[in-house]
Amino acid sequence: MKNLATKTALVALAAIWFVPSLALAERPSREEMRAERESFFLAADEDESGGLTAAELEIFTALAQAGRAERAFVRADRDDDGELSLEEVSSMKRKKHRGNRSR
Prior knowledge:
Elements: H1 4-17, H2 19-23, H3 30-44, H4 54-76, H5 86-101
Helix pairs in contact: 1-3, 3-4
């Protein structure tokens, strides 16, 4: 991919942009999620056509997954040490399974 460095920089900027909501370990607002999706879309639209090709959709999907993973990490890192302990990971998985049962 010719613009890999640019895409990587955009991912980093997108992560920095949403740090305030991540630091609070809260679910982002609808407006924050819309803005995040839009920034990922614009980053993925390499040819600036206003639409995504199959290859560009892969970039968009990777950016969205990275955003979800970052939010999950921040919520799980209860002691804010930048690492997840086994206890924090286990707690994260228990919460996920409890949420699935209530649906």
